Amino acid sequence: MKTWNVNSIKALKGQGKISCLTAYDYTTARIIDQAEIQLILVGDSLGMTMLGYKTTLPVTLEHMLHHAEAVARGVVDAMVVVDMPFMSYQISIEDAISNAGMLMKNAGVDAVKIEGGAFRVPVIEALVENGIPVMGHIGLTPQSVHAMGGYKVQGKKSEDAIKLVEDAKALADAGAFAVVLECIPALLGEEISKAIDVPTIGIGAGAGCDGQILVTHDMLGLYSELTPKFVKRYANMEADMKMAFKQYKDEVEDSEFPADEHTF
Ligand code: KIV
After folding, report:
1. Mean pLDDT, 10 residues at a time, over the chain (264 residues)?
2. DSSP 8-state assignment for residue 32
3. Is 182 a catalytic residue?
4. Which one, 143, 157, 222, 232, has the greatest CB density within 10 A?
5. If you measure from the C-alpha of residue 86 to the centroid of ligand 1, how many angstroms do you get, rounded to a whole number?
6. Cβ–Cβ < 8 Å for 202, 181
7. How many Cβ atoms from other residues are within 10 Å of residue 185's Cβ?
C-alpha cells in the first residue's frame, strides 16, 4: 500500500506540512514521488502546460486519462489526484459518477478533484458514497475563468470571503478529504483552514494553509507565458533547456558530437 492516502493526508491537518505538485507524465511523476512529495495532482492545467491551450476549458476526459495513466505508472508512494475536466461533472450526478469512475478504474489514480463551492455538495456526496475520494477546489476556479472575468484574486470583499468560508465548510461536510484554496487573501486562507477539519491546500492562499500546491512547470521555470505572483521559481529550466539544445546544435555543426566515446 502507498504511504499517502486519504487517512494519512487528513492526519497532517493543522501542521502546514503537506506539499503537492502537478505532474502530467511518467518521468516527472517518478521524480516528484522520489522527492517524497505527499500529493501529486494531474491537473487540467495540462491544457496549457502540455497541450498549448489558453485555458483549461478544452481539456477532455481522454486527455486526463492519457496523462493520469502515465503519472500513476511513475508513482510508488504519493497520493495521486486527477482533475475532472470541464463539463465532465457539471451536467448530472450520473455523468459525474460515471466519468470519475472511469478515471479511477482506468488511470489507477487515488482520487478526483472538482471545482466549485456549496452547490457541488450533491455531486461530492454521490462520489464519496460510491467510494471515490474527492478533493474540492474553491476561490479562483480556472474552469470558470470566463464567469469570473479573468484570473483574479477572489474573496477580497467581506461578503465573498464569508461565502468562501461557507463553501469550504459545505465541501468538508459533504466528505471532501481536502480542499484546494486558490488565489485568495492570506488571512482568509488561514480563517478557512481553522474553520474546517480537513486539510486545505493553498495556491496563492498564504502560509496559513495546511499544505501548498504549485504547478510544476511554473516552479521549474518551464512555462513563462503566465507567471502569477504566488509562484516561486525553484529552477530556471527554460533557460537551461535552451542552452543545452543550442550547445547540442553547435556541437553537431562543429562535428564535436558524436565523439569517439559515443560511437560504436
Ligand atoms: O489544474 C491545476 O493544476 C490545478 C492547480 C492549480 C490547483 O487545479
Report:
1. 97 98 98 98 98 97 98 98 98 98 97 98 98 98 97 97 98 98 98 98 98 97 86 96 98 98 97
2. H
3. yes
4. 143
5. 13
6. yes
7. 18
From CA 119, how far away is CA 41, in angstroms rounded?
Answer: 23
Assign residue 188 the CATH number of its domain.
3.20.20.60
Catalytic residue among 69, 115, 182, 253: 182
How far does residue 137's CA lie from ligand 1's centre (Å)?
Answer: 9
Residue 78's φ and ψ, nearest 5 degrees, are -75, 150
Residues constituting the chain: 264
- Determine the Cα–Cα distance for residues 204 and 200; give it in Å rounded to an integer: 12
What are the CA-CA distances from residue 26 to residues 41, 72, 83, 126, 234 (Å)?
Answer: 13, 7, 17, 31, 21
Is 63 among the domain residues? yes
E strand residue ranges, the chain: 18-22, 39-42, 79-83, 111-113, 134-139, 178-182, 200-203, 211-214
Grouping H, G, I as helix, E, B as strand and the rest as coil, residue 22 is strand
What domain range is 253 assigned to? 237-264
Residue nearest to atom 4 of ligand 1 (CA): 43
* Of 103, 101, 92, 19, nearest in space to 59 by CA: 103
Looking at the DSSP assignment, which residues form a beta bridge with residue 42? 82
What residue has cell string 502507498?
2
Determine, yes or no, domain membership for 1: no
Task: Please state whether the predicted TM-score (pTM) of the whole model is above 0.85.
Answer: yes
